[in-house]
Amino acid sequence: MNRLIMALATGFYSGRLPLCPGTWGSLAAILPWFFLRELPWPAYLLMLVLVFILGFFVSGSAEKLLDQPDAGPIVIDEFLGMFITLAFAPDHPAAWVLGFLLFRFFDIKKPFPCSWFDERIHGGIGIMMDDVIAGIYALASLQLIWFIGDMIWS
Fold first, then answer.
1. What's the burial of 128, exposed, middle or buried (CB within 10 Å: 0-12/13-18/19+)?
2. Tens-of-pLDDT digits for all 154 residues of the chain?
3. What distance lies between CA 24 and its chain's CA centroid?
4. Which of 34, 93, 124, 129 falls 20 to 30 Å from 76 in CA-CA distance?
5. Is 122 helix (H, G, I), strand (E, B) or coil?
6. Are 22 and 72 in contact (CB under 8 A)?
7. For residue 62, what are the CA distances in angstroms to 11, 70, 92, 147?
8. Cα–Cα–Cα angle for 52, 83, 143, rounded to 5 degrees
9. Helix H or strand E segment including 99
10. Residue 94: what are its φ and ψ, rounded to 5°?
């Protein structure tokens, strides 16, 4: 069971790659998202909820297994953050790259309330929530930038 928990929590071990596990996890999330992006909106929303619940449990358990709070290799939260960021992404690779960059920016900078969750809420809920909010910021930013770009270049 511990192997399954670690496989899920580390984004199928993408969080174990050297240097920047959050970046690797965010990048790895694009592959499953690519296949999930065509889901009807209610099914996509259900998938987000299920990934959040799964992430809550496995990240909290992985934290205990690794004996480290919000350990770097735990990247299931990055998967959810990217799934949120790209929820309404235009069908264009430039939008996907921009979404990735925006999510990484917000996940690293942690503007309020991301920082509040990161600093004050511990365990699985804290691990997941700062990335949920970073994903929402990145989603809104991507949509705004793409909308403005469409107005300028159309």
1. buried
2. 889 999 999 999 999 998 899 999 999 999 999 999 999 999 999 999 999 999 999 999 999 999 888 888 999 999 999 999 999 999 999 999 999 999 999 999 999 998 898 888 888 899 999 999 999 999 999 999 999 998 898 7
3. 11
4. 93
5. coil
6. yes
7. 12, 9, 35, 39
8. 130
9. helix 93-109
10. -65, -35
Residue 154 CA to residue 141 CA, distance in Å, equals 19
Amino acid at 100: F
Tokens 């953050």, located at residue? 81
DSSP code per residue over 27-92: HHHHHHHHHHTTS-HHHHHHHHHHHHHHHHHHHHHHHHHHTSTT-TT--HHHHHHHHHHTTT--SS
